[in-house]
Give the backbone structure.
Amino acid sequence: MRVVLAGGGTAGHIEPALALADALRREDPSVQITCLGTERGLETRLVPQRGYELALIPPVPLPRTLTPRLLTVPGRLRGAINAAAAVLDRVQADVLVGFGGYVATPGYLAARKRRIPIIVHEANPRPGLANRLGARFTEHVAVSHENTPLPHAKFVGIPLRREIATLDRLAMGDKARSYFGLMPDLPTLLIFGGSQGARSLNRAAVACAPDFRAAGIQVLHIVGPKNTEEPEPARGGPQYVTLPYCDRMDLAYAAADMAICRAGAMTCAELTAVGLPAAYVPLPHGNGEQRLNAEPIVAAGGGLLVDDAELSPEWIRTTLLPVLADPARVAQMSEAAARMGHRDADVVLAGLVREVVQGAQAR
């Protein structure tokens, strides 16, 4: 089976694609997987690291508004479609699986041109332009939110890395806290804002460092590589550990009792899969999709929701600290979060890929 994955640009597009690739390879080590990408995206680092072939095509980001740049799109898009079609021809692709983003658009159009089966995966409640287009070319549409407005949508969830999907937080807790230099028996708060950190989260949390220590709460704070906020060092008492980056998020989740974080689709999927409750702070920009990601989890009792503009040291002191000080409530929130999680989306989507390829070969 020869599979081409189109999901470049951001980690939110790349990670589900790589989780699917891992699931396909576990089931059939002979499967041939090629990832479409551009030289601009994170895929240039992430895809080779995971051991998969990366085929680069020209980037064609589509303007969100009417600007003169729109006049340059048709010619550039034509070149990207031809480049994607050349990749499909070279690998003799049986199927193209798209995850959205500007790599997916030429991928979908090239696959349609070559009459290669298409599968669309949409991680967000509001689909982007690429997946709205791709869903018009196929009946095989996998979504991560029950009410995603795409034709033929089938709920699957978001494919996750195996180290996250199979994580037993309780069993790994002591080892994980030791790994980060934390005490084994104190309530632990994880703070992170994505790969680049989040300035508003950093400011509010660092200002509360004395309050965390006074409440007996230790903190693991992934501040991002460009962060300038640092808590004052303290002698004794609960630790406030800061890291510029963490490549073992499975251990970070296992070390924590609760998190403060953004509400991207991958973040929400991972936290619910491992049953970690969180105070979600949706990114204040974009089309509001981060709030839509978090709202069902919060409604089910698996987290808190606070607007970025409302996140302050005072909110942390008056709202979050009382929750962290109540182990029974944290346990209830953990159970509620876990009920919202889906650990097997990678396996389900891999099954759909096999089904589509076998159906096409049988015709």
Remarks:
- The longest strand covers residues 32-37.
- Residues 280 and 305 are 5 Å apart (CA to CA).
- The two ends are 16 Å apart (CA to CA).
- Residues 167-339 form a domain with the Rossmann fold fold (CATH 3.40.50.2000).
